[in-house]
Amino acid sequence: MPPDPPRARSGPAREEPELAPYAARSSRASRPVAEEGREPFLRTPYAEDLHRIVHTRAFRRLAHKTQAIGAASCDHCRTRLTHTLEVAQIARSLSRALELNEDLAEAAAMGHDLGHAPFGHAGEKALNALVPGGFSHQAQSLRIVDLLAWGGRGLNLTHDVRDAIAKHSKGLGPVFARGPESPATFEGQAVRVADIIAYLAHDMDDAVEAGLLKISDIPVSILAAFGESPESREDAMVKDLLASTSVLRNGPRFAFSKSMEENMESLRAFMLEKVYRCPEIAGEMERGAETVKAIYIAVTTDTSLAEEIPLKHLSQTREEAAKDFIAGMTDRFAIRFLEKIRSGERPVLPVKV
């Protein structure tokens, strides 16, 4: 008997025998604008979404955006890009274990932080305070894939990937959202929890790399619960999640054990006190926030500068154009841009975004 053709082995038909009944199927995926006859030969629609995301400038710029420790101050610390790759790896692992659609989980994970501002959450908070109507990186990520990417054409991603991107961030809300705040697919829910596992597992490693912490500074209780390495912390959370998640007829109900929730809260509190609010990081983030604020004021008050912003024609107001422009900046571009403004030199703006 001749072997199956490549499409049968790698397209949507492959999903049926491999996925649980409650997993998303790319054969049922739809896009805001229909693309009949345009899906590629060897990729499912979700895999095609991943392909489109990684070919954006917004994705490549993540390599020079801060995750937790300043991107320019530590060669081996995570950037927003390496964090994204780690979230994707965890989301795929969870999806594989629960027989979910790995292509959907990976695509959403790779696109979840496209809209992050420079200087990590400090930049996000600064923009949120400046922009009329506020600013959130998850909404900006969706705006990028819907409108700004590829020269203003947008990516026309599937609704499932768009939903997972828009609802990935916990913020101050619960880890496991229920109701309208929860991603519509279980794959989207896996990305949401993978994001939390990634930063809890890895930010401590970055603090040690940057010399902000020594292993001897970490409480014995945290070391006992998670181990010393980022791999052991990640494994501890993933294993507990899979052991505590109930797989019901209509799909998994994600959960951590009570002891793991307490350990994660202890880890988060320790990191908040000793790292996120330490003088070195706090000062660095304050400078980043001031940079964002100064650029925003300059761009929204200097008419000639505002007219040069790429894709300004896609924004309804000068403030929205400034928000789109600044949110897309890398840390180093923002610093250099402000230096040129303050020196009286006209900054050279990029032609494309």
The N- to C-terminal Cα distance equals 50 Å
CATH-defined superfamily: Hypothetical protein af1432
Low-confidence stretches: none
Number of strands: 2
By CATH reckoning, the class would read Mainly Alpha
Can you tell me the CATH architecture? Orthogonal Bundle
- Taking all Cα atoms into account, the compactness measure Rg is 21 Å
Following the backbone from N to C, one meets helices and strands in this order, namely HHHHHHHHHHHHEEHHHHH
User: What structural class results from the helix and strand content?
Assistant: mainly alpha
Tell me the overall shape. Answer: flat
How would you characterize the overall build of this protein?
The chain has 17 helices and 2 strands. With 353 residues, the protein is mainly α. Strands 1-2 form a two-stranded antiparallel sheet. It has one domain: Hypothetical protein af1432 (Orthogonal Bundle), CATH 1.10.3210. It has helices at 6-10, 15-18, 45-54, 57-61, 80-97, 102-111, 120-130, 137-152, 159-166, 186-209, 220-226, 230-244, 258-276, 279-301, 303-307, 318-327, 331-343, and strands spanning 246-248, 251-253. The chain is flat. A hairpin with a 2-residue loop joins β1 and β2 (251-253). The relative contact order is 0.13. The longest helix is centred in the middle third of the chain and has 24 residues, at 186-209.
